[in-house]
Amino acid sequence: MIGVLKMKISTKGRYGLRAMVDLAANSAGDHVSLNSIAERQNISENYLEQVFSTLRKAGLVKSIKGAQGGYTLSNSPSNITVGDILRVLEGNLLIVDGAGDDISLGNSVEYCITTNVWSKINDSINSIIDSISLEDLVTEYKKLKGSSSLMYYI
């Protein structure tokens, strides 16, 4: 049986990315409550509190307490990448943990695989997630949302 190579993004990463897109799409300069994000995204508010605590500590969002409180992005959506968000919530996104650690030319097969396979996959993943901004996702989300409201049925 052939093994399957998997890199999984956890629920924390997936929900966090969804919540950040929602925040960017719905803030319009105002603070957005976690409750409203939780309702729109069908995510537990308690879970989002944990996610946003991590995002706040990393400096990706700012929070304001009180009746008019909530969250806002700490930077423009064009300056926040998917990579920024996922690395905060997931840590380094590596296909193989420890690839490159303690590998010498003495083990030429492992060195060859690491430099020609694992490192290239890791570089590709990082290149992709660093090339997609929150603004890109919001633009696509709004296009999809707009086109779905224009559907006509006969």
How many domains? 1
The CATH architecture can be given as Orthogonal Bundle
Question: What's the CATH topology name?
Answer: Arc Repressor Mutant, subunit A
The outline comes out as elongated
Helix content: 55-70%
Question: Which structural class matches the secondary elements?
Answer: mainly alpha
CATH superfamily: Winged helix-like DNA-binding domain superfamily/Winged helix DNA-binding domain
Gap from first CA to last CA: 50 Å
| Average residue-wise pLDDT | 87
Give the C-alpha Rg: 19 Å
Proportion of residues in extended strands? 5-15%
Structure notes:
A two-stranded antiparallel ribbon has the order 1-2. 56% of the residues lie in helices and 5% in strands. The chain is mainly alpha-helical and 154 residues long. It has a single domain (11-149), classed as Orthogonal Bundle (Arc Repressor Mutant, subunit A). The chain is elongated. Helix 1 crosses helix 3, helix 1 packs across helix 4 (82-90) and helix 4 packs across helix 5. It has helices at 11-27, 34-41, 45-57, 82-90, 108-131, 134-149; strands at residues 61-64, 70-73. A hairpin with a 5-residue loop joins strand 1 (61-64) and strand 2 (70-73). It has 6 helices and 2 strands; from the N terminus they run αααββααα.
